[in-house]
Amino acid sequence: MGDETINDSVTFSFGTGVNDEGSPALQAIKRWQEDGADREARRTIDVFGMSEEAEIIARELNAMLRTDGLNETMRLAEDIARGNGQLQTDNERLFADGPPDAYTVDAEQPDAVQRFRDAFADILTRPLEPVDPGVNYSFDLVDADPWTLELTANKWWLNTDGGLRWNQVPVQAYSMEYPEMERELERERAALDREDLERTHREEGLEASMQKAEAMAVASGELDPNRDDGRLFREGPPDRFTTLCEAELAGREHEAAVPERDEWQELLDRSNNDQPDPEPTYWLLQHRPVETPDGQPLGTALVMIEFPQLTPDFGAYLEVHGMDDSVYPTEARRLELAHFADESASRKFEAEFRSYLVPGVIDGPELAPEVATLEGLSGEWERLSVRDIAGHMSGAQAIIKEETQWQLHNPHAARLDAVGLEFESVSPDFDL
Hints:
The chain is an alpha+beta fold.
């Protein structure tokens, strides 16, 4: 549990339980001996919707006990409890039972956590919880210029004069140089990426979310993976996490940006790396409605369409010149990656899929068949006729499928966040 020993019989730690209403709770735990018997007191300091979230925060507080000591950790715990209404007054302490607590919490001094909260109230950001008295972090979407939206990782701290200071690292850029509909889709993709990082923080902790942001920044070209200074942020107090680059420079073994799963590693191990890498081509992802032959809706399919006659920069050409007969493709193939209940879920999966593509290492058409196989689909490319190409380019066709062919995505079966960045390129068999 990471208990902090105060004397031979009193310890403090953090764990999980349930509150009076039966909700998952983060709890402070005090243990002592009295009359030769073990005693325990628990105090809820926060309530969550899922027990996993409480477990993550408990682990971080137990780690803080070991690194920052009892006073700082219990001060933070009381700040959390007070902010959530578990402590009603400044003078109320977590524990009334047992021996007197051997830590001090000076209520007369300005509370660092509250000062952080007051400062955050004046700016458009939402810090990752729980708010720390020393240094905090957030993931934000900012308009870098009139044509670019950026997803950024941010570090916040209070200067000696009490002013809020920050350091920002770009993670991913999203072009706003599109017609209105495409612009909104890019904004939605950016919002999903931000939500994914915040969800990783809730489920796996600060280090996992920052390592994931680091990997995304490397994949998008915003960050050099071979930098001499392995830190993510160059300014402010020491960070409360270790980056992948720092771990590598220190000579330690480390996981990729997201945890590997056996299913993905098996796919990579099976790949034939002796084959020459295919030339990059133009491809796109579409979210197509799916219906039964009698017109009953089944959901949305995420479909990749590849055009072997077109180069990867064809999308930029279309933005300037538009489509005409002189450049209209006559060859294409498509592949269904996954099936979803609705378009929103499909777009979320697309954002996740794109975040793990690494230029020069693995491209969309290389990874797509393997993803489809994990989804229970065939993973085989289907050649398109000229008429089919026209239908797909217009986005007008619905996909007709029997209910028995419908394989709804199960997010717990195999997730894209199981893909690491350190692998050889998978080389599928092109047959066009």
